[in-house]
Design brief:
Oligomer: single chain
Largest sheet: none
Structural class: mainly alpha
Helix content: over 70%
Shape: globular
Radius of gyration: 24 Å
Number of helices: 17
Number of domains: 1
Order of helices and strands: HHHHHHHHHHHHHHHHH
Length: about 375
């Protein structure tokens, strides 16, 4: 048994086992709220809506096409001479079912980890106490005022409305998850090490944040004081959030937030999005920059300003308090440190005897073969 366990990567102990535990606890508890966490439909819908959903769907499509192309490469090449001057085209197969199984396991592990964390967050949203949420919203807002002497979000809006700075941070904030999707795909195809570190640090930061959301629930400033008031906001905060002049672009963004994040405090239909303190936008922006550094230092340097602008955007759009950002960055740095320690520890004991990660090379090999023979094709005129 010990020998078997030594052949398993750190992902198994620090992500898969915790994810299974979180999934079982959350799904059984959510039955009280008529949520069927075990259905494939619920899994697919949640995954599509997740921040990794688009990346995973694109990855699955590319992998399926690569496998089909590799398996039927001979048939494809048998027709190519009809359209090409080169009648000696050959295709070197790379099909290895052990590698294909590896790809399936890697994608499944990333998908399931994301799904388990999503339903745990859904559980917190459905069990959050409105009074406690309102209380912590005021407390966190008071921390902002103590640190900056004013409300940072309102101050930024009043000073930078209709400026290039506003357009820039709103664009970055609105597209940060496309950057996450791109880094996810690039790391999968070009660096097994970067891909694993991305998944580990991304998920560990989420797991660390869960207790904060449970013990210190708070919703975003915009929801707290302007859209779906919990009737517990202090008069000072209500005055601040009802006396500012957002630009048309910001108004459109706030209206979008209003449609997406509706607060419902009815016990039978309760839904309070309390994932504000800490900010996962800030945490994941930091993780994106970190993964970029692992891939290529110059890419990481380019992504650091993107992460900083994303942090400003989260405050500017009234999605987070400034202290949410600071805590989110700290959690990201902690998760990155844990990830680095785990990966270093793994090198001392782990040998991929079962070729669990062999699938990373399969698609890249197919692409290389595809590229090599396309250079040799000479189309008949």
């Amino acid at each position: 048994m010990d020998k078997f366990l030594k052949n398993l990567p750190v992902d198994f102990y620090f992500l898969l086992i915790p994810s299974i535990s979180i999934f079982l606890f959350s799904s059984f508890f959510l039955k009280k709220f008529s949520v069927n966490a075990f259905s494939f439909g619920a899994f697919y819908q949640a995954l599509i809506m997740s921040h990794f959903g688009a990346a995973i769907m694109v990855l699955i499509l590319i992998v399926i096409l690569a496998i089909i192309f590799d398996i039927f490469g001979d048939i494809i090449f048998s027709f190519l001479p009809l359209f090409s001057k080169n009648n000696n085209l050959t295709y070197k197969k790379t099909t290895n079912w052990k590698h294909i199984l590896s790809i399936f396991l890697i994608v499944s592990y990333a998908s399931f980890t994301t799904y388990s964390l999503l339903i745990s967050t859904d559980l917190l949203f459905k069990t959050a106490n409105p009074e406690k949420t309102g209380l912590w919203g005021n407390i966190i807002s008071s921390w902002d005022r103590t640190i900056f002497g004013t409300n940072p979000g309102i101050w930024l809006i009043n000073n930078f409305s209709n400026t290039f700075f506003e357009k820039t941070i709103l664009w970055v904030y609105g597209n940060i998850f496309w950057a996450l999707t791109l880094i996810f795909l690039i790391s999968f195809f070009f660096s097994k090490n970067a891909f694993r570190k991305l998944i580990l640090s991304f998920s560990i930061s989420w797991i660390i944040a869960l207790p904060f959301w449970f013990f210190f629930p708070a919703i975003s400033p915009d929801l707290m004081f302007r859209i779906d008031r919990l009737e517990m906001a202090s008069p000072r905060e209500k005055l601040a959030y009802n006396n500012f002049t957002p630009s048309i672009q910001l108004k459109n963004s706030l209206e979008h937030e209003e449609k997406v994040y509706k607060v419902n405090t009815k016990p039978s239909e309760r839904f309070i999005p309390i994932s504000t303190f800490p900010s996962m936008h800030a945490a994941w922006g930091t993780v994106i920059a970190y993964t970029g550094i692992v891939l290529c230092p110059w890419l990481g340097i380019a992504l650091v300003p993107l992460s900083i602008l994303n942090d400003f955007g989260a405050v500017y759009i009234l999605e987070h308090y400034s202290v949410d950002i600071f805590l989110g960055i700290i959690i990201a740095l902690i998760s990155i440190f844990i990830t680095e320690m785990l990966m270093r520890r793994e090198k001392k004991y782990f040998y991929d005897k079962f070729e669990l990660f062999s699938g990373f090379n399969f698609v890249s090999n197919v692409v290389k073969n595809l590229f090599s023979w396309t250079k040799n094709i000479k189309v008949k005129k």
